[in-house]
Design brief:
The chain is of the alpha/beta class. It has helices at residues 19-26, 45-52, 61-66, 70-78, 93-104, 117-125, 149-159, 180-194, 223-226, 246-256; strands spanning 3-8, 30-34, 56-59, 80-85, 108-112, 136-138, 164-168, 170-171, 176-177, 204-209, 217-222, 236-240. The chain has two domains: 3-112, Tetrapyrrole methylase, N-terminal domain (Cobalt-precorrin-4 Transmethylase, domain 1, 3-Layer(aba) Sandwich), CATH 3.40.1010.10; 117-265, Tetrapyrrole methylase, C-terminal domain (Methyltransferase, Cobalt-precorrin-4 Transmethylase, Domain 2, 2-Layer Sandwich). It has ten helices and twelve strands.
Length: 267
């Protein structure tokens, strides 16, 4: 039977895949993996191949986005295929598109979920999941032009009293991974033009580094202090809190070493 199974790899290493995911890969005729949508610092492909007892074929952004996952779909039409994906498989819209293409071709699809950066950041910071608004990606500048969309999303979320999770751009082919500092500088450059006091030097933000590892770094502070803070190696993420529940304020102080002044954000 034609079948394509999307399997989440989790956040950090080759040990983060679930037992269910391992079983699915072992039962597949063909196993693919994409590693361009997120950075998994401790992922060892050779170890992962030994774990799932299958050769793993890497697919690129071009394979999935420009060629519509043709290689994967053709393999799935011949028998069971598995696509290994960092994090939770369908967080990236690319993979939703591939699943739709598969279903339209009569290929049965299933999903084995994995740990997601979305839930990880919420858990590490202590900011409650129902208090988040739309998330957004802060991209690298293009020919010196900085995208205004992240700034506008943060502004709209704050207006509604909602937190904003900012994914930081990844260009895996170039081995470029945006840091908290780079993300903040991009937003400050937009602030300099807009002057709407959405992201200023005194705005409280939360930086998260290496979620899913045994020693993640979580720090809440004013932007001017975060610019000086050493988060270490990527991957990094950013959160801009809005109005806080009193438990959220206490969590930021206890879990992210936030300044006591965050209690003033409780409403």
């Amino acid at each position: 039977m034609a079948e394509l199974v999307f399997v989440g790899l989790g956040l950090y290493s080759d040990r983060d895949i679930s037992l269910h995911g391992v079983d699915e890969a072992r039962a597949a005729e063909t196993v693919f993996a994409e590693l361009y949508t997120s950075l998994m610092p401790e992922l060892n492909l050779s170890k992962l191949e030994r774990l799932v007892e299958r050769r793993i074929t890497l697919v690129s952004r071009r394979d999935l986005e420009e060629e519509g996952g043709k290689r994967i779909l053709e393999a799935a039409e011949k028998g069971k295929a598995v696509l290994l994906v960092p994090g939770d498989p369908l967080i990236a819209t690319t993979h939703v598109d591939l699943r739709i293409r598969a279903e339209r071709r009569g290929i049965k699809t299933r999903v084995v979920h994995g740990a997601s950066i979305v839930s990880a950041v919420m858990g590490l910071s202590g900011l409650q999941n129902y208090k988040y608004g739309r998330s957004v990606t802060i991209p690298f500048s293009n020919r010196g032009l900085v995208a205004e969309t992240p700034y506008n999303v943060i502004r709209r979320n704050k207006k509604m009293g909602l937190h904003t999770l900012c994914f930081l751009d990844i260009r895996a082919e170039e081995k470029r991974y945006m840091t908290v500092k780079e993300g903040l500088r991009a937003l400050l450059s937009v602030e300099k033009q807009k002057r709407q006091r959405v992201v200023t030097q005194n705005t409280i933000a939360v930086g998260v580094a290496r979620a899913g590892s045994t020693a993640p770094v979580v720090k809440a502070e004013r932007v001017n202090e975060l610019l000086k803070f050493d988060f270490g190696a990527p991957p990094h993420s950013l959160v801009f809190p809005s109005r806080l529940h009193f438990m959220e304020a206490e969590a930021l102080i206890a879990l992210a070493r936030a300044p006591e002044t965050v209690r003033k954000m409780v409403k």
